[in-house]
What does this fold into?
Amino acid sequence: MTRKIIPFVSGGSRTDTAVWLEALQAAMPYFSIVEINALDEPARRAAQVAIVADPAPSDLETLPNLKWVQSLWAGVEKIVADLPVSEMKIVRLEDPQMAKTMAEAVLAWTLYLHRDMPYYRRQQARGMWEPRPMCAAPDRTIGLLGLGKLGRAAAGKLRDQGFTVCGWSRSQATIEGVATYSGVEGMKSVLSNSDIIVILVPLTHETRDLLDEKAISTMKKGASLINFSRGAIIDDAALLSALDRGHLDHAVLDVFREEPLPRSSPYWSHPSVTVLPHISAPTTRATASKIAADNIARFFETGVIPKAIDRSRGY
Ligand code: GLV
It folds into this structure.
């Protein structure tokens, strides 16, 4: 029997695509995982499901009979924005391993700010020996924007590390040992009480420019910011101005409106900005391939499409 073809649609480099194809094929030997460019017309028409990783919408449009796509990325805002609303369902990656990876990154970069590493780096460059007063973890409030699977895992890790943790989400969440808020007033409370704000909300029409000039001015003077979600959540001009004025102390930015970050961006050389190349929580190939394999096998056995995103909500 010929194996069913599952198209793989990736916006990544050739090397990245090749490594993914290998991992996906190994996880589902009973299907044939084929890169979209290698598919002929009949195969494109036959495809009911595709695996996607930051796909070009023009590629997806060549698969007219897709019932659903399995994303290997947690964030699917580009597919939601670029593809016309259709019957096609979008299943984002929900991988417990990614939540762990993200929680670890949040802890790492929170500690980086908490223990004044950017400051000591600058002191060393100037040959200066000037200790800053130490602040104990419980005296530092970390505010998370977004309490989905990734946000919850991060909140737990920060709490267990001894920080005072609060968090905001669209609908009210409950997390043991974490002060949780929702709504406009809740957002103000989190912004105004936190020493470090960590952005983990998905990018939707509601969260685009969430951290605009007004929101940033609500933040505590001297607070810092970590963005591990999407660049478009922050108004770049407002952030740069707040850093230049000293209203904010430091920003750790892993995501940008344009990636790779253009050479001309002022972020590269800003003394109060740490630029990271979108590395906070990369998908783990083995676990994600297994999740995709299980979802696709179940679909062909039972017809059940895994829980898809709500397109009107955007995630
Ligand atoms: C990475 O940014 C992802 O959405 O998985």
